[in-house]
Automatic annotation (TrEMBL):
The protein's name: DUF3159 domain-containing protein
One matching Pfam family: DUF3159
Listed transmembrane segments: 36-62, 74-90, 110-132, 153-173, 179-201
Transmembrane helix recorded as keyword: yes
Keywords: Membrane, Transmembrane, Transmembrane helix
Phylogenetic lineage: Bacteria, Bacillati, Actinomycetota, Actinomycetes, Micromonosporales
Highest taxon of source: Bacteria
């Protein structure tokens, strides 16, 4: 009697995408609404107007996410980031410094993604593996490890691109330009990174690979009965 392999996907089940696993839309809301509110408040009433508008917008986003059932820790981190950005701007007296935290965060993220690939712990695998409850099992699958490494380069490139755009605007004191860049390099860039990295992963995996949910360790192949 031939048994059905455990890793076979149930008939009719829709293949998951990285968008399903990573949920990029909520992060994009956090990243765009407060900066837009800051720019509107700054244009209308100066630095204090921008800070108040950004904090109120951040609180509104946090309340919306709370009602949607997001984890309290995630909600508070998003609101805290807005408050810290506002405090930095008030401390320096420069409106563009509201975006300094985001600039530093993107630079650190670019470095983290690149280092993770070099040390063979690609962050895309870490994030997706955690979302799927796999811990480190995906690393024992050479095909998945290679695919996640290639897909992680896509995400590293997004952070490098943001830094390359943000730094000249920040140095030039371009508040409105920073807001436009932040919006343009959040929603569209996240969507593009999700799509491209998903294609990279799918094309990097062998045709007979069972998918992200089912890492294949070398011992699995060795243990398979000879035909």
């Amino acid at each position: 009697m031939t048994s059905t392999p455990e890793r076979e996907r149930p008939s009719g089940e829709r293949p998951e995408s990285l968008a399903d696993l990573l949920g990029g839309r909520r992060g994009a809301v956090d990243a765009t609404v407060p900066p837009v509110a800051f720019a509107v408040g700054w244009l209308a009433a100066g630095l204090w107007g921008g800070v108040v508008a950004a904090v109120l917008a951040g609180a509104a986003v946090a309340g919306w996410r709370w009602r949607r059932g997001d984890r309290p820790r995630s909600v508070l981190i998003g609101l805290l980031a807005v408050c810290v950005a506002a405090l930095v701007a008030l401390r320096t007296g420069r409106a563009t410094d509201f975006f300094l935290l985001q600039l530093v965060s993107n630079a650190a993220s670019a470095l983290a993604w690149i280092v993770s690939i070099v040390v063979r712990w690609p962050l895309l695998g870490v994030v997706v593996g955690a979302a799927l409850g796999q811990r480190g099992r995906w690393r024992r699958d050479p095909a998945l490890l290679r695919a996640y490494g290639r897909g992680s380069w896509v995400w590293a490139a997004t952070y490098v691109l943001r830094v390359a755009v943000f730094v000249p605007l920040w140095l030039g004191g371009q508040v409105v330009g920073l807001v436009v860049a932040r919006v343009a390099l959040t929603w569209p860039l996240v969507a593009a990174a999700l799509a491209v990295s998903w294609v990279v992963i799918r094309r990097s995996l062998p045709a007979d690979h069972p998918g992200l949910r089912h890492p294949v360790a070398p011992s699995d192949a060795d243990a398979a009965p000879a035909q």
